[in-house]
Each structure stands twice: as structure tokens, then as C-alpha cells.
């Protein structure tokens, strides 16, 4: 086979055509997929062909078969899990990343993508008011961003106890105690599992899910060895922020590492609106966030920040004879994340921030929160609807009275397809959980969402009346 640039033209033109059709459909199409997975699986259930196929025809077949099973996550009416849409500059940059086909691991080998990611990292530290000397790594998502921060913390606290985890592993090491709020996110639990640290000791939280400093102080007083403290910037159900300065001070006074899980909420630090709520955030040791959430770049793009750049390189740095290092001695991108080989996922972050600028990033974050408050106000005006959380950021948790009624309204809403909101359980109660994460959500989308909930509520109420 011979490389011919012209061979890419027809399939890329097909891809652009179908991408445009998809994007054009988002403002009006139902959010839920039109076909279930078994129907899609049947459509794709074909034997592997014996002969090659025309690449343009393959792209057309793929787009046509997949379309009924696509969820409109990029729609301004998607409020399910915390998933943002994709900003135009970020999507376009992501296409370039695939076309460039750069392995983003070594500065010497792929200097352009390394330089772009380094600048994106510097912009993030500046925007979020984190220590300027921190190391920034681009991971697959929030789970691995937590993994990176906690791995650096594990090495640091064990090192302080005289144990080299890189050399000796965990067998026979001092036990590392992990303290986390009772509403810790599952991504943290997974990261701890991957690190061999087991489950955390859970610390009491207030009714909004914020870890209680008095309970944290009591838990720390019972710890006798190495310790990691995990805090939240953005509770999954309430959006609330842990009291950072007090909790981080307590952790440091006890010799513990303070890590902040800020999958979506860390971006609140870009706006002065949350300066008080996040006071002291910059004093932590590591932070994790997801750029595909609040910043609205394509998957996959977690961001791990570690204040001690040497600590993260100690956890993930690896060298061998065939790695060509840059003479400058700066950290290679592969020394900041678990992967040696990876796509240059920080490039769309650069593009998103370059297109938004500082004021645009602040407006994006504040706009999401404004829409969450508007949704909460509209829903609270409906009969029998109770907003359970203080709407401090982008999350809204709603009850329709009983758990059974809440579950049925949630299902009716999903079946309607106009919007997507997910069910959950918070503080022992079934809730409709709303996450406002899409840059394109506007007042019209909010109005459609409130009306869709009203219709779902009416459907359930009518069914209950007819059944009596």
C-alpha cells in the first residue's frame, strides 16, 4: 500500500458532511436515542468482509447505521450526567489532533503539541488561581486525574514515613489512611482502588454534602500514619464546595496530603463569584478536573494538577534508552500521566481557552450557574415540586414528593425525549438530578426543560388518578 494524500479527501469530505448534519440537528432533535442498543447491535452484526472497501463508503455506512443510536449529548437540552457539549474551536482542534497523529509523550519528538499543552496548562493555573509552579497533566478523564493526584500524594506521604513505594511497592509499607467526605464521588473510590489503598474512612458532611471540619479534625486525630485527605469542589447532587481553607489547614497540620476532586466544580475558581466559597483552594497539594465537563472540550480530557512537580514526576516518570529527551530538562508530558503513548488531548483545551479568553471562560462558567438557578426557579414553581439543594453552582436536585412518584416522573421525562435529566438517590431520597454543563444552553432551552418536566408530572398525575 502506498501513502497518497488524495486518498483522504473523499472520506474526510464525507465525515464533514455527516458531522454538519449531526450538528445541524441538535437544536431540534429529541435528546434520547431513537433506537435501543440491541437494534444497533443487529444493524452492525455483519461478518468481517473478505475484501477492502472504499473509505468514503465506510464513513457513510458508519454514520448512517449509528445515527439512530446517538444521544444528543451536545444539545442545550441535555441535563443528565455532568457532560458538556463541545465548543466549535475545541471540536475543530480535536480533528486536527487526529489528522496530525502526534504521540504526545515526548517534548523532543513532538515539540508542537508539547508546547501547546504546556501553554494550556499555564493558562489553567492562571485562570483557576493555582500555584504557578504546579505540574499539569492531561489524562483520559476525571477518574485518572484523581488517580494522578492521589498517586503523587501516596508517594509523598509514604516517603515522609521513610518508605519508597516506587522501589519497594506497597507490601509491608505503612498503611495509608484516606479520609473523604461521606458523599465522596465514585471516581475517587476507583482511583483509590487502582492505587491499592482500599476504601476511605468516611467523614460526616452537612446536609448539602460539604465535609464538616469538626468531623475531619476528629478523624485526623485518630490517624497515626501516612494520610491523604480528599475534598470536593462541586458536590455531585448539590454542587456545594467543601470549606477549603479550614480543611486543608487541618490536613497539613496533621502532615496529610490534601487532594481536591473538582471534576466540574474546580472551574468555579475562574470567577470571582465563588472566591469566598473556594477560599484556600490554592493551598491544597493536588487537584483534579474534567475539561469535557465545564470547559466543553471533546472526550477524553481530564486534567491533573500537582503543586509539587517533582512529586508527580516521581510517580509517573520513566526513562529508557530509546526515549529521546529534550535538552532543557523539563518534564515530558508522559511523566505527568499514566500513559507513555497518548493523543495530544491538551490541544483542544488550548483551542477552547484561546477562543474564550479570560472573560469568555468566566462568562461560560457563570452562565451555566445562572441557567441552573433559572431551572430551579422554574421547577420550584410547579405544584408538588421541591428543590432539595441550595443551588450554588450547576447542580439541581428535585423531588416530586414520594420516591415512587419521583422515579415515575423521571422515567416519563426521559420517555418524552425533549430533554434528558437523570434519576439518582441523595440522602436516602430518590431525586431528579439536573446538571447544567453545556455552553449552548440558553433561556429557550431552560423554558423547554421546565415545560417538559411539567408535562411528565402531568402524565404521572393523570395515570395515578386513572388508576384510583
From TrEMBL:
GO terms for biological process: carboxylic acid metabolic process. It comes from the Bacteria. Its cofactor is pyridoxal 5'-phosphate. Keywords: Aminotransferase, Decarboxylase, Lyase, Pyridoxal phosphate, Transferase. Pfam families: Pyridoxal_deC (PF00282). The modification N6-(pyridoxal phosphate)lysine is found at residue 293. InterPro entries: Aromatic_deC, PyrdxlP-dep_de-COase, PyrdxlP-dep_Trfase, PyrdxlP-dep_Trfase_major, PyrdxlP-dep_Trfase_small. One of its GO terms (molecular function) is transaminase activity. Belongs to the group II decarboxylase family. This is Aspartate aminotransferase family protein. It comes from Cryobacterium lactosi.
Amino acid at each position: 500500500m502506498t501513502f497518497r494524500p488524495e486518498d483522504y479527501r473523499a472520506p474526510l469530505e464525507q465525515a464533514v458532511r455527516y458531522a454538519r448534519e449531526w450538528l445541524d440537528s441538535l437544536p431540534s432533535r429529541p435528546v434520547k436515542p431513537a433506537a435501543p442498543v440491541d437494534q444497533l447491535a443487529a444493524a452492525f452484526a455483519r461478518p468481517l468482509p473478505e475484501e477492502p472497501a472504499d473509505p468514503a463508503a465506510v464513513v457513510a455506512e458508519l454514520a448512517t447505521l449509528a445515527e439512530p443510536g446517538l444521544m444528543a449529548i451536545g444539545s442545550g437540552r441535555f441535563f443528565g450526567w455532568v457532560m458538556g457539549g463541545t465548543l466549535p474551536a475545541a471540536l475543530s482542534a480535536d480533528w486536527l489532533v487526529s489528522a496530525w497523529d502526534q504521540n504526545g509523550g515526548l517534548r523532543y519528538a513532538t515539540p508542537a503539541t508539547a508546547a501547546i499543552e504546556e501553554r494550556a496548562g499555564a493558562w489553567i493555573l492562571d485562570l483557576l488561581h493555582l500555584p504557578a509552579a504546579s505540574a499539569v497533566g492531561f489524562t483520559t478523564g476525571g477518574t485518572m486525574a484523581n488517580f494522578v493526584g492521589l498517586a503523587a500524594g501516596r508517594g509523598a506521604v509514604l516517603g515522609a514515613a521513610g518508605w519508597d513505594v516506587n522501589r519497594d511497592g506497597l507490601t509491608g509499607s505503612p498503611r495509608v489512611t484516606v479520609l473523604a467526605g461521606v458523599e465522596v464521588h465514585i471516581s475517587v473510590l476507583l482511583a483509590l482502588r487502582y492505587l491499592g489503598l482500599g476504601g476511605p474512612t468516611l467523614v460526616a458532611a452537612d446536609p448539602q454534602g460539604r465535609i464538616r471540619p469538626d468531623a475531619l479534625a476528629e478523624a485526623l486525630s485518630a490517624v497515626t500514619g501516612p494520610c491523604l485527605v480528599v475534598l470536593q469542589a462541586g458536590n455531585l447532587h448539590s454542587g456545594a464546595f467543601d470549606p477549603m481553607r479550614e480543611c486543608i489547614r487541618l490536613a497539613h497540620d496533621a502532615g496529610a496530603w490534601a487532594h481536591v476532586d473538582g471534576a466540574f466544580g474546580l472551574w468555579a475558581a475562574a470567577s470571582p463569584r465563588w472566591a469566598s466559597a473556594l477560599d484556600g483552594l490554592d493551598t491544597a497539594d493536588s487537584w483534579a478536573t474534567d475539561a469535557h465537563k465545564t470547559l466543553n472540550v471533546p472526550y477524553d480530557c481530564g486534567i491533573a494538577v500537582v503543586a509539587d512537580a517533582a512529586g508527580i514526576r516521581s510517580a509517573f516518570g520513566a526513562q529508557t534508552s530509546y526515549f529521546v529527551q529534550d535538552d532543557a530538562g523539563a518534564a515530558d508530558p508522559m511523566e505527568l500521566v499514566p500513559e507513555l503513548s497518548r493523543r495530544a488531548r491538551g490541544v483542544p483545551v488550548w483551542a477552547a481557552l484561546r477562543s474564550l479568553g479570560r472573560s469568555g471562560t468566566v462568562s461560560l462558567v457563570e452562565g451555566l450557574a445562572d441557567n441552573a438557578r433559572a431551572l430551579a426557579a422554574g421547577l420550584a414553581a410547579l405544584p408538588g415540586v421541591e428543590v432539595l439543594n441550595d443551588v450554588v453552582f450547576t447542580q439541581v436536585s428535585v423531588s416530586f414528593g414520594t420516591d415512587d412518584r419521583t422515579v415515575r416522573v423521571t422515567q416519563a421525562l426521559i420517555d418524552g425525549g425533549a430533554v434528558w435529566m437523570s434519576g439518582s438517590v441523595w440522602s436516602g431520597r430518590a431525586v431528579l438530578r439536573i446538571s447544567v454543563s453545556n455552553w449552548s444552553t440558553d433561556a429557550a432551552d431552560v423554558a423547554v426543560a421546565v415545560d417538559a418536566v411539567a408535562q411528565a408530572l402531568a402524565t404521572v398525575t393523570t395515570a395515578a388518578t386513572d388508576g384510583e
